[in-house]
Amino acid sequence: MATVNPWKRFIGLLPGGHKTTAEVLDIDTAAGTSRVQLRTGAELVVAGTSVAVGSTAFLADGQVIGQAPSLPQYDIEV
Q: From first to last of its 78 residues, what are the pLDDT tens digits of the chain?
């Protein structure tokens, strides 16, 4: 049964999942995966091969979803 609660209906429209960016280190076309490095230095193997090696990729739920722009990054401690 569908809810009539407007807040729950609104939340249902929002996309879910974890999104981040990472640099592509290697591509394995046979397996359809890419090895990427997060800003923290951690390396992951994710699904998708659409972004070239050395480029920055958008990741969502363990998959490459597209190329991200290469922008400067600053870390500020308060």
A: 567 889 988 888 887 778 899 999 999 999 999 999 998 999 999 999 999 999 999 999 889 999 999 888 788 898
**Does the global pTM surpass 0.70?**
yes
Give exposure, 31-68, as e/b (b: 16+ Cβ within 10 Å).
eebbebeeeeeeeeebebbebeeeebbbbbeeebbeeb
Q: Pick one of 2.60.120, 2.60.40, 1.10.510, 2.30.30 as the CATH number of 16-68.
A: 2.30.30
